[in-house]
Amino acid sequence: MISPEQAQYFFTNTEDAVCIISSSGEVLYANPAAEKLFEIPSESGIKIWKVVPFIEGNDGLIQLFIDAVSNKVASHEAIVDYVNNEGVTSNLHVRMTCHEQGQLVYLIVITNLTQLMKVNSALVRYTSPEIADYALTTEEGQRSGGQKKNVTVLMSDLRGFTALSSGLEAEELITVLNHYFEAMMTCMQKYHGTLIEFLGDGIFIVFGAPKEVPDHATCAVKCAVEMQIAMKDVNEWNRKNGYPELEMGIGINTGDVIVGNIGSQEKMKYGCMGSEVNVAGRLESNTIGGQIFITESTKDLISEELFIVSSGKFLPKGVPGELKYFDIGGIGDLRAVDSLENAIVWEDVPLNKRYKFYFLDGKNVEKETHRGIIRYISQNHRFALLETNTELEDKQNIMLCKSDDRIYAKVIRKEDNGFVICFTSSIQTVKD
Question: Would you state the pLDDT for residue 227?
Fold first, then answer.
């Protein structure tokens, strides 16, 4: 048993506000923290709900006190807002316990959660709600290490954004990216994806971790289609505000990965790694703006009807053989905005412009020079017909050069009179 003096010491020095009130609500005792929080006047006998300023925002706290006393509840707790006389809002955790020994009294213990709520809010903003919940409420979230899980990985990236961004001020660049990310995150949250991180202008999303998503492959593809649909509104906003239009490619793969906390005890992050993540990234790099490529392992798990534009094979690094992929134009009732190269209409007048061009290996430009002629350009100025004696591979990235101009493109397919290429950067100099 502790002595009354010890109890008084704890009440006096705790950061929690502690009050004892009578059965009719009068304040019988308030520790220094409670006096400071509620600015309790010196006179005795004031009702507990009378110490709360009668202003907008305090209705919940006032009603909580009145209900507890009126209904004589044994215990009650809630999280409510409290606005003081200076207009500062705090988040309070209020616990009320009824005690009867000679007379009926209530013990009220109030913990100020404002700073904790700010930390939680910041954690959600800088990670994601799923990762924040994982870190704060699970044992696994408190320690380093990972586990193997079957998930679906979505990788997206803007096409030619590095070249486009060179004409923007830093503040404008952040404005454009933030508006784009906001639209994409709305789609992700709708289908229960978890944002792992932003990769420059790219997005890395996982479906199925840390929280289980039973139909994660279907959710990922639906999310991807809605992301492409959302680009229409993103670009409409960009046009109205004088910013360049954006195009996005998406790659999706399903498989076993390692997910969990990566780092040290001082600093950790929730990560997702493994060869299946790399496959999604390599698949995304093969897309042009507006396309969604999924692997066969994802397709086999889809529970709804897929609209497949085309299919093909690719060989990612570290994989012993070629993998099949599918170009997805829709799922169920969802359809992407357009069908891209399947609807190419060439301009009537030949362009016939000569260019040097170079192969790209990742972000590096190979040294060997090749030559070709752009014979035709499409009416939407997204595609061109390149005539060259060099044999080009499907999905190969190239850089066309003339004087000081640099134009980036991806090979789409071979035709009898040349190669169809899709521009992945501004082509104003080609049109001129």
Answer: 97
